[in-house]
Amino acid sequence: MSLIAYEQECAELRARVAELEARLALPAPAEMNGHHHEASPFDQDGETRLLRAAIQSLADGVVICDRDGRLIHFNAAATAIFGERSSEAAPGEWSSRYGLYQPDGMTLVPAHEMPLVRALQGDSADAIELFVRSERLPGGRFVECVARGIRDADGDICGAVVVCRDLGERRRYEAEREQRLRAEEERLAAEKEMLRMARILQSLLDHLDVVVWATDETGAFTFHDGQGCASAGFERGTLLGKNIFDISPGDHLVQRALLGSAAHDRSHMNGAVWDNWVIPFGEDDKKASGVLGLSLNVTEAHQAKVELEAKLALIQRQQEVIFNLETPIIQVWDHVLTLPMVGVVDSKRAARVTDDLLAEVSRTQARFAILDLTGVDIVDTATAGHMLNIITAVRLLGAEGIITGIRPNVAQTMVSLGLDISRVRTLATLRDGLAFAIRKLTEDGSAARRAALLPRPTRSVESG
């Protein structure tokens, strides 16, 4: 029932109450037009039966009481709502007997607030809402009451009538209407959110170099859009209805997605490099009914990466050349190696120098290894320790380590650090170190030759 229809019924109900009031207040037929004619018993009985039948047939509950508050009539609808009529129940007992509560469903209606009682007092009670709960109606129901006093020919109140309408249908209508309004609001909110998401997606498609596409389970394109379509050699939307397997036979990404697995790869198309992502989607999680794909043009990023990798490789090669130039091991004479040190000697560089120098000493059978510090401006404890370790390692291979080219400030630093270099031979310049090594090699060679020229001692044999 619509709200308009309900209001129309309310108006009709009020009209019926007014008509009932008018009929009950009409003078007897003998008194009409100033003439006192006695009405026939047939007319009085017929009118009474007709009036009772009309009240009984009403869909709304009708309750009538006399001037003393004694209930004299319940129609069928009133009996269905309140139960059987009791003429002995006084107005103060109505609430507890018939289960009449205020709309909170907990507070019994006081006698003076009863619609019938108010009508007996001459008040008009309109749209009074009550809650009725009894053993017959354990769940209760809401009713709306309209009450009026009944006046006799002299205008005195001789009783009262109340018409009660069950609000269940109205409440159901209001609940349904509220539910429809809420559903409509949710639908509008969902459409608004979908429109917002569509605008976001469209903005991305219009401004980013991407291609977003979708296919059904057979591989036919159902969506194809994006600014990147031009870079791929297609117009936006031109692939709709075409099959991806005809354009790219054996596309493993789409095949994997149709089987339920997301996939990613990088491909080349129309002179551009693309990163492709393909994911399955469908009505449920058991089987994919299509795939959703996104292809991003990464040509510039790919070229930048290739160029960066080439630059890094070049820098690494240059670093290796520079490192080799920083610590060259030079064989300046037979059995004499020199190692010019330049810059700062850290742990990594010292380890590599030590490995290279020991390998060269072993390979060339060197007798002397000259460590030249002419290019070293600053020496700290760590640097000095590395150099002493190099000299010690050379000595273990049977060669003599010589340090040359120590600058005055370096010498002062080494002394202030308290380093013990008393067991290390130090000379002023690389030339002095080379001269010393050659001289020692010459002296050792001469001594070896003289020893070879001396006669060997012979054993004396005693004659027997």
For this entry, give a set of tags.
5-stranded antiparallel beta sheet; Beta-Lactamase; 14 helices; 6-stranded antiparallel beta sheet; 3 domains; STAS_dom_sf; single chain; 464 residues; alpha+beta; Transcription Regulator spoIIAA; 16 strands
Short description:
This protein is an alpha+beta fold. The chain is built from 14 helices and 16 strands. It has 3 domains: 3-166, PAS domain (Beta-Lactamase, 2-Layer Sandwich), CATH 3.30.450.20; 208-301, 2-Layer Sandwich (Beta-Lactamase), CATH 3.30.450; 327-450, STAS domain (Transcription Regulator spoIIAA, 2-Layer Sandwich), CATH 3.30.750.24.
What features would you describe in this structure?
The protein is α+β, with helices and mostly antiparallel strands and about 475 residues long. The chain folds into 3 domains: about 5-165, PAS domain (Beta-Lactamase), CATH 3.30.450.20; about 210-300, Beta-Lactamase (2-Layer Sandwich), CATH 3.30.450.20; about 325-450, STAS domain (Transcription Regulator spoIIAA), CATH 3.30.750. It has 14 helices and 16 strands. The chain has helices at about 5-25, 40-55, 75-80, 90-100, 115-120, 170-205, 230, 245, 250-260, 300-325, 345-365, 380-395, 410-415, 430-455; strands spanning about 60-65, 70-75, 100, 125-130, 140-150, 155-165, 210-215, 220-225, 265-270, 270-280, 290-295, 330-335, 335-340, 370-375, 400-405, 425. A 6-stranded antiparallel sheet has the order 2-1-6-5-4-3. Strands 8-7-11-10-9 form a 5-stranded antiparallel sheet. Strands 12-13-14-15-16 form a 5-stranded mixed sheet, sandwiched between helices. Strand 7 and strand 8 form a beta hairpin. Helix 11 runs parallel beside helix 12. The longest helix is centred in the middle third of the chain and has 40 residues, at about 170-205. The radius of gyration is 58 Å and the shape is elongated. The chain starts with a helix and ends in an 11-residue tail after the last helix.
